[in-house]
Amino acid sequence: MSTRRETTLSENTLFGMGNPLLDISAVVDKDFLDKFGLKPNDQILAEDKHKALFEEIVKRSKVEYHAGGSTQNSVKIAQWMIQEPHKVATFFGCIGTDNFGEILKKKAEEAHVDAHYYEQNEEPTGTCAACITGDNRSLVANLAAANCYKKEKHLDLDSNWELVKKAKVYYIAGFFLTVSPESILKVAKHASENNKIFCMNLSAPFISQFFKEPLMQVMPYVDILFGNETTEDIAEIAKRTQNLPKENTKRQRMVVFTQGAEDTVATVGEKATMFPVLDIDQNDIVDTNGAGDAFVGGFLSALVLEHPLEECIRAGHYAANVIIRRVGCTFPEKPNFN
To answer: Mutual orientation of helices 70-82 and 309-323 as an angle, nearest 10°?
Structure first.
């Protein structure tokens, strides 16, 4: 028997909240990217000029649909890594009352995630177009329903808030800052006041560029901040982040940055440590799209078990290594990790 599982996990120990999206991925060409003004490797929010993109991409040959959304991917992978008991991971987000919404509910159930969606009928379920050219992925998110999450209509309801209180570890991707910063703050303050772990992700460059104010409001409550190589000058950001004020002084803030195939950097206090990722043959890489979400999911699965930092990173590297061998954020039936 492995000595890893000293902690017995109960349901709803891990809480995630974010934008539930249905990923629509298809191979496109450079003309398609140029037509819609897309960079080969990027993550953006859809604007009016992208409306036609969603109509066109579903007509391409070999379209694939996968349950997505950054936070939802991460909690799903954490649950997959944990396996038993089911429903250790909870997820909140907003969907539409439509077919895509039903698919997301079904996929969450299959992944044994305890998803509680706020369902509304004014906007359809959000989608994310993954426009694939070679090894590159250009992601265009049409938040739609995901953008309609309402704190007072969902998070504040007693039955839902009880689920929040049951958790010990919280994770919200930066993408949700564009939707409901007040919901993030309520959860972050709860974590801080009860000495629980609150984690956040800088997600994509546009978050720290255009949503700096809500990000800075949440920052004093962040125990673990994740980021990736799209975030400029990692060492500098890690250092600056460490110096930002922190509400719960019982926990030292930790900054964890992945850099694709390069070493993962973790900064605790003044000390930065490098962790090499697992080797992989270039030919085995199928889709790097979900790697960042998978890393966080693996990390969280070890974090809820109260494992030390290097174990959390090892679990993150393992999960990312599995995911990049497959299309979309999908995984085999069971992990092979010990």
So the answer is: 110
Active-site residue, selected from the candidate residues 114, 223, 287, 293: 293
What does the DSSP assignment read for 244-301? Answer: S--S-TTS--EEEEEETTEEEEEEETTEEEEEPPPP--GGG----TTHHHHHHHHHHH
Q: In 10 A of CB 278, how many CB atoms? A: 11
What percent of the chain is modeled with pLDDT above 90?
65
Count CB atoms within 10 A of the CB of residue 24. 23
| Exposure on the CB side of residue 104, measured as CA atoms within 13 A | 33
pTM for this entry: 0.91
CB 125 within 8 A of CB 149: no
What would the two tokens of residue 19 be?
Answer: 């934008």
Q: Is 156 a catalytic residue?
A: no
Which two three-digit tokens encode residue 107? 């996929």
Distances from the Cα of 74 to the Cα of 156, 173, 200, 243, angstroms = 24, 9, 12, 27
> By CB neighbour count within 10 A (0-12 exposed, 13-18 middle, 19+ buried), where does 44 fall?
middle
Out of 37-41, 57-61, 87-91, give the one with best mean pLDDT.
87-91
